[in-house]
Amino acid sequence: MGCAMWAHGPWQGRFLPQPLAAGERLRAYASWCDAVEGNTTFYATPPPQTVEAWARQTGPDFRLLVKLPKPITHGRRLAGGDEELRPFLAAMEPLGPRVHALWIQLPGSFGPGDLGALAGFLRRLPAGHRYAVEVRHPAFFTDPRAARALEGVLAGADAEWVPFDTTVLFRGPPDTDAEREAWTRKPRLPRRSPALTDRPIVRYLGRDDTARTVEGWQCWVDTITGWLREGRSPTVFVHTPDNADALPLARRFHDEVRARLPRLAPLPDPLPAEPLTLF
């Protein structure tokens, strides 16, 4: 269970300690959630000491969904990319089992005609990692033939299809500045919920209004509960346009699933947002 980032200004002093050194932010976040999206690696491969710091701040059961660099997925569109891929994989090695999956997020222009490039790329990847693919071309969501073709490519590599559910965001007009910005940047696609592997991944984007976010995720509570009963190990990332309350919302989602499946382990106890005192 996690969020889109582990450091966010509005969390400081509300949910996470303030002040908080940069080298302690992931540790504090990991007291709230046990997974996080690694979006920063999309923009640059971090130096080894940065990745080593991430590993030091988290336990071996913490999980990162690590996004492949933009030059590979958007620049080269999976054609080649070995020059960027090798140092990236080497940089991630200190995380060890914390790498839940390597996340291949593809541009909206990457359509059914590009599946050959995806299949070839997946074949070239080392077998030591799990892989998760996010597509944004409308044909994969509206054309059953395109969807089946993509599923076939992913099944051949035991890779997961990552849905990014934005349907709640676009269900009604935006009410906040963050929602208005999200309307211009986020993909508007149908919801997709089938799992291809035993470790499905869901990215859910709600609204800045908590009630609407919670109402919108009820279908996912049903789906996640079903997957757990089937013996799968799903991971869910909760977003809102401003992400101001994403931390407690992620825990609330987990609590709703746990209310149906009490055997599900609880999340860790969060660190206090304020320093403890003697009085």
UniProtKB/TrEMBL annotation:
Family annotation (Gene3D superfamilies): Protein of unknown function UPF0759
Any Pfam family the entry gives: DUF72
Protein name: DUF72 domain-containing protein
Species the sequence originates in: Sphaerisporangium rufum
Source organism phylogeny: Bacteria, Bacillati, Actinomycetota, Actinomycetes, Streptosporangiales
PANTHER family to which the protein is assigned, alphabetical: UNCHARACTERIZED PROTEIN YECE, UPF0759 PROTEIN YECE
SUPFAM superfamilies: TM1631-like (SSF117396)
